[in-house]
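job 3f2a | input accepted
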Amino acid sequence: MNMSFPLAQEPDAFARERGRMLFAAETTFLKGVVAMSGLPPADRLEICFAGRSNVGKSTLINALTGRKALARASNTPGRTQEINFFSRGEMYLVDLPGYGFANAPVAVVAKWQQLLKSYLSGRPTLRRAFVLIDSRHGIKAVDNEIMALLDRSAVPFQCVLTKADKVKGLDRDTMLAQVRAELARHPAAYPEIVLTSSETGDGIESLRSIIAELATTG
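job 3f2a | predicted structure (218 res):
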């Protein structure tokens, strides 16, 4: 098994407290953006969350911030076609529209996919993208397309595996081997994987501490 992308370790007490403090203050919804002209000023650190429709992105953001309905999780994958900005102190958390959903009109899909690509390739304050991958399915071709875009844009990204409670034993080992092999093809991939479950809370403290470290180091 390729172990060049280890799983993130549980944070120590200091890192855990730093992550808790970062998200203890209120995170508020700022705006939804449907065109690059609507982006807020690039005047602070940004991190973004990208992932296929129905990967659990909204649920993860809600778990991170401790607010059950901050990010809207739709029962219809692909319905959210905006870049949603959340203000967390001197940082923006950015929820990108889900990709890889084929049942929307072609013109609509093309428009929001172009918005997604424009944002990822042209936002100077974007410090890291968290690319969410469903643990049950591993990395798919459409995920590799986004990762390749991040490679070309020199935007560091980190793989966050969601719904980890749904995969166990040998199935988990097989999935991790596939994910590691795919990540090894991408030079912009940060060499650590975060394994999470919004249902059980696993990995949430680790992800908070990673984001807090990014906020501290600017």
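job 3f2a | The longest strand covers residues 126-134.
job 3f2a | closed
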